[in-house]
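User: I'm new to structure prediction. If I give you an amino acid sequence, what do you actually give back? Let's try with this one:
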Amino acid sequence: MTKSYLPTVSELQKGRGWYLVNAEGVVLGRLASRVATLLMGKDRACYTPFLDTGSFVVVVNASKVRLTGRKMDQKLYRRHSGMPGGLKETSARNLLARFPEKVIEEAVTGMLPKNKLGRAMARKLKVYRDQQHPHQAQKPVVIEVATKT
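Assistant: Good question. You get back a string of structure tokens that encode the predicted 3D arrangement of the chain. For your 149 residues, that looks like this:
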């Protein structure tokens, strides 16, 4: 009988790296799915569904991400204060103008597991509105995301 493979802690930490993704001109859904794959660690040979095997991901130029069709006006982001009548709605155009980081974070976290492990994966996502970021010391590997025109 063969035993199931379980990666050791040293194997998990050894392959965990930093990736830099430029969001300029990239469609939001394509960007989010690629980033979610890196955060979960599905691109690694030691991927295990119940362990955090993913890497850190830095996304720059969040304000220049692209939405296709009429999503800029029709896509709504909702939040609720918990009080009666406390539902707030914001269009993607307004949220992208005010908080472009939030648009990418929402798209990526929607593709991660909805549990404690997914929240741990989401903490490894760093999103910045322009080219500048404070993670140069980690020497992130630049990842290209396919842009379909």
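You can read the tokens as a compact description of the fold. Here is one thing that stands out. Residues 51 and 117 are 8 Å apart (CA to CA).
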